[in-house]
Write a structure and sequence with these properties.
Blueprint: H1 4-35, E1 40-48, E2 51-52, E3 58-61, E4 65-74, E5 81-92, E6 100-110, E7 116-117, E8 120-127, E9 130-132, E10 138-143, E11 151-163, H2 167-170, E12 187-192
């Protein structure tokens, strides 16, 4: 026959195991759900508001307003998610090759519906000229084209972090789909200081 003290220890151990199991079960469920694949997929980027040249490249001038269009699939299995979205331009070639420019930042709520959509971002459009801060205000000390430069090629793409469930706060999960980890497929544009015919 077990003593009262031994029974008490056994009860506490059993309760601890039950509590640990109850806490870990949702974490395991969401971890597996998150591992099934990206919540959102982006395909076939195009640029609206820029001229498509005979060479297959997009062209725009400083001050032009452009939109980047993607086909987007938001998977239903993940439900509703908050995405922290950063939209970048990266210098291709030139003296500052690889330099990043933040063009737009926004927190968006995505609803999982398994539907193909073709939205354009950002809703208000990008006015080419300067980097922006996290509030969307132009940083005039960071021009897209530095002094003395008449044109620059940029790769435009999106980076986004998911916040679909509490596991995403513990193990960060980012957008997939481009050539590089954590970013979408890129689309290139050549930005000129002056408009050309």
């Amino acid at each position: 026959m077990l003593s009262r003290r031994t029974r008490c220890i056994a009860c506490r151990a059993a309760m601890s195991i039950i509590v640990l199991y109850a806490i870990s079960l949702p974490a395991i469920y969401f971890y597996v759900l998150n591992a099934l694949g990206p919540s959102t997929e982006y395909y076939e980027p195009t640029i609206q508001g820029a001229a498509l040249g005979a060479d297959g490249k997009y062209y725009a001038a400083l001050g032009d307003k452009i939109f980047v269009n993607y086909i987007i699939v938001r998977h239903k299995i993940n439900g509703n998610c908050l995405l922290s979205v950063s939209r970048y331009a990266e210098n291709i070639g030139g003296d500052d090759a690889g330099k990043l420019h933040l063009l737009d930042y926004v927190d968006l709520r995505f609803v999982g519906q398994n539907e193909l959509r073709r939205p354009r971002w950002p809703m208000a459009g990008l006015v080419l000229g300067y980097d922006v801060d996290k509030d969307g205000k132009p940083e005039t000390s960071k021009p897209l084209l530095p002094a003395g430069s008449d044109s620059q090629e940029f790769a435009l793409y999106v980076k986004a972090r998911y916040f679909c469930n509490f596991v995403d706060y513990i193990i960060p999960r980012y957008l997939q789909g481009g050539e590089r980890p954590n970013e979408t497929e890129r689309v290139n544009i050549i930005v000129r200081r002056q408009k050309h015919d």
